[in-house]
Design brief:
It is a single chain. This protein is mainly α and about 110 residues long. Helix content is about 80%, strand content about 0%. The longest helix is centred in the last third of the chain and has 21 residues, at about 85-105.
Length: about 110
């Protein structure tokens, strides 16, 4: 049952990122907005922190999600915040997060637990 709560948190953080990025039309706009960058990075870190807590069984049910990458990004943000590449963060926020949200929302296992 805890996993359901963790997955719901990941959905919440993903939706926040998508909402924050909705107004951003280019990498240059993203790079120029320090508050937006910080908000995106914080939510990415929270997604990774939450992903660490999900059981192996649930991760196997969501095999379309690359869990090590999510957790690895969290570790990179936590341990080398100043060294993160903004181009990578921008790409994750604009491409990977919508995919993650879609995978979480449309996965048969998640919908059965709701």
């Amino acid at each position: 049952m805890k996993d359901k709560s963790y997955l719901e948190r990941m959905v919440k953080y993903s939706k926040k990122i998508i909402k924050y990025m909705d107004e951003v039309k280019s990498f240059e706009e993203f790079e120029a907005n320090e508050e937006k960058m910080d908000a995106i990075v914080l939510n990415l870190e929270q997604i990774g922190e939450t992903a660490k807590k999900i059981s192996i069984e649930t991760k196997e049910k969501f095999s379309c999600i690359h869990w090590p990458s999510i957790i690895g990004l969290r570790n990179m943000i936590s341990h080398d915040y100043e060294g993160i590449k903004l181009t990578i963060i921008f790409e994750i926020a604009t491409k990977n997060i919508p995919e993650l949200l879609e995978n979480l929302n449309h996965h048969e296992s998640f919908n059965k637990t709701q």
